[in-house]
Design brief:
alpha+beta; Arc Repressor Mutant, subunit A; 4 strands; 2 domains; single chain; two-stranded parallel ribbon; DNA-binding transcription factor activity; two-stranded antiparallel ribbon
Length: 139
């Protein structure tokens, strides 16, 4: 058995700490109670500390377990914040939109549509070049 533990181990730990039962934690994590039990045992082995008192009513946190909950919840909040930041930065469009079209089409269609686009995606810059060059038909 390894002496290292992972963020996943802390998630299993928090699920048991919040529910007080392996089966309820397993349902929340969409896994089996055997897996939850094994992950708790691995975490306790890695930390060399007993985190729960097992009794007929379920699992109750030890003093060390209560201290770990506080730290694990901070880690959980930071992990969620990081995930949200990454998700936001990946999903947010950025850059320069360049369009070149005859003036009549540009005035009629593109200006309105690009203004709407810019309201939805503020980081985008837009530049419209008016010209009368015929570039042919695009399929």
């Amino acid at each position: 058995m390894s002496t290292a533990f992972s963020w996943n181990d802390l998630q299993y730990f928090l699920a048991v700490a919040r529910t007080g039962q392996l089966s309820a934690a397993a349902r929340n994590l969409r896994t089996t109670h055997v897996t939850v039990s094994r992950r708790i045992e691995q975490l306790e082995f890695a930390l060399k500390a007993k985190l729960f008192e097992r009794n007929p009513r379920g699992y109750e946190l030890t003093t060390i377990g209560r201290r770990l909950v506080d730290t694990a919840e901070i880690i959980e909040a930071e992990a969620e914040r990081l995930q949200a930041q990454i998700s936001d930065s990946v999903s947010q469009l950025r850059g320069l939109v360049r369009l070149s079209a005859p003036e009549g089409i540009s005035n009629f269609f593109f200006v309105e549509k690009l203004t709407q686009f810019a309201e939805i995606h503020p980081p985008y810059q837009r530049r419209i070049a008016y010209n009368s060059t015929d570039y042919g038909t695009f399929a």
